[in-house]
Design brief:
Elements (H helix, E strand, L loop, with lengths): L6 E5 L8 H15 L8 H9 L3 E6 L4 E10 L4 E9 L8 H16 L4 E6 L2 H10 L2 E3 L8 H5 L7 H6 L8 E5 L20 H18 L11
Length: 226
Amino acid sequence: MENIPSFIIRPATEKDVVFAETITTEMEESAKARGTGIAKRSPEYIKTKMQEGKAVIALTKEGIWAGFCYIEAWGHGKFVANSGLIVAPQFRKYGLATLIKNEIFKLSRTKFPDSKIFGLTTGAAVMKINSSLGYIPVSYSDLTDDEEFWKGCNSCVNVEILKSKNRQNCLCTAMLYDPSKKAKVEEVALRTDFKKNIKLFERWTRLKKYVMLNLKKTKDKTFNLF
């Protein structure tokens, strides 16, 4: 019987900066494997997030790095994003991503209680996790207009699609948690039928990838599916 490792998931601190280079390397390798991009971050940037208390780290009881995620604030704190979620390859079958997302979400709500929390993702699994936390799929126009945030997309292999859609759509699905609209959150939702069903998330991401990638080949056609 396989031994399931035990994890310690907590806010990162100054003493965790020793893992910064490992984390940034794994982020880059993971993005390459998925065929999509994330904003490239330096080890120094990750260290700063740890020192500011704006990150969550997962370690085994033996002190081995297992996962990470950090908080970014945009639009003078009106929006925050839980970015750079990464799990070490050897620990990717234990539900650790969900545990980390739960912790970074709680940390975000503590530090920025009135802020909208948003994310862009191509992963059905991440969409399911976000949905369980109260996020809904929304239009890109519902996200921050902070130029510094959108500059992060320049390192993505799909940035030309984003530019061709006037920054209103891309392969990623936009998801938003708005603490001020708990009772009326579905009013701005693009989809209300997911109901945390992973198969629907998977179909959604496959369809969006198919349509968006074909847009590159048929620039004269216009699609308004999303």
